[in-house]
Amino acid sequence: MAKKESNADLLIANILSGIEDVKGNDINILDLREIENTVCDYFIICEGNSNTQVNAIVNSIQKKVSKELKDKPWHVEGEDNAEWVLIDYVNVVVHVFQKHIREYYDIESLWGDAKTTVIETKY
After folding, report:
1. 25 forms bridges with which residues in the sheet?
2. What counts of helices (H) and strands (E) characterise the chain?
């Protein structure tokens, strides 16, 4: 079990690094492990300021995870309009939003029981 945890930790670290490389904003990690009947263990939520930045964040995450962990997402959706892109790494699901779409859907409130970690950025 400890090995599985370290794999999730490595994946999360690489995802966060990919987000930070292109200055993704307002990064939160929702730990869903204590909640029954969830589809994954973690949500990572962040936002970009435009379609271009959202796509840059998504590409950065995928390149970083592919290069460092030799892993690719099981599924990606939303890249066409780049307002809300979901990257599914099975146990970790990344949501990359534009600000207005994130506010509208407010998935942090929907998963209010989750333990939330706010990632401080230096930019």
Report:
1. 47
2. 4, 6
Using DSSP, state whether 28 is helix, strand or coil.
strand
pLDDT digits (tens, 9 = 90+) for 43-72: 999 999 999 999 999 999 999 999 999 999
Tell me if 66 sits within 8 A of 59, measured CB to CB: no
Which CA distances in Å does 25 have to 21, 22, 41, 85, 97?
A: 11, 9, 22, 15, 10
Contact 90, 71 (CB under 8 A): no
Q: Which two tokens stand for residue 61?
A: 């995450």
Distances (CA, A) of 89 to 15, 41, 52, 61, 122: 10, 10, 22, 11, 26
